[in-house]
Amino acid sequence: MLMAHPAVLRNLVEQYETLRALHAENGSTEVRQRMDDAAYTLCVSTGTKDVEAALVAARRRLPLARTKEDSLLTT
């Protein structure tokens, strides 16, 4: 399975969480559609079938990815 770049995962998680908060505040259909799109992209990017599993998978990858990225900067 292809793995999304850590920066992409980080951005998707932040985008989804922002949209979820906006939807909780105003419940507009536009925000809901954008949230659903972000959830779908997260699922595809993490190889999962629901957004909660996608968020868990993305968060698990991010700390490890940060360590690897930092080590590349020191060489």
Automatic annotation (TrEMBL):
> Per its record, how is this protein called by name?
DUF5133 domain-containing protein
Q: Which InterPro entries match?
A: DUF5133
- Kindly give the Pfam families that the UniProt entry links to this protein: DUF5133
